[in-house]
Amino acid sequence: MTRKEQKEERRKAILMTALNLFVEKGYYDTKITDIAAAVPMSTGLMFHYFESKEVLLLELVKMGAEGTQALSSGPAAQAMADLPADQYLKGFLQQMFSFANEQPWVFNMFVLMGQVRRNGMPEEARKVAMAVNSIDFTAALIARGQMDGVFRAGDPILMSRCFWASVQGIMEEMAMDREMEAPDPEWLVSILKA
Predict the structure, then answer these.
(1) N or C: which end of the chain has fewer CB within 10 A?
(2) Which domain holds residue 8?
């Protein structure tokens, strides 16, 4: 392994360790020394990779934002764009749950992104997290499904928020219990159906 590859591996280890600790202990209760000890590495060496805990959090939130963007507008999402709205959402959830099962850190990322959106978190990271907007995209999809008679009548924004609150809750449960199986996407989509 080259020196560059080793450095990248260590950087990933720091990020994943910080993600786990931020979710388990909370951002403010996690110290840089906790992360360094869990990696393991010296605190001084860790500052070589990330100059502060806030910079580390921001990097994680950017990863979460990029992942969300890839799921909602990447090649797989574009391939499903012409599907009926309910089929699109089911396919999206199947892909998301499948990816999360292959990459368990995704569950923790959902939890972290939800936490960072709250008041009191470092402002730059909070702004990045708040810019992730799955609600409007899904609301437009719901409105399309309502016009097609697939989804029930109602405020598409409210319905989208309820849908995503359910998904967030499931991801949080799965982060806490790695033995929990993902629910059938049809269950979640059915809360929207007419």
Answers:
(1) N
(2) 1-51
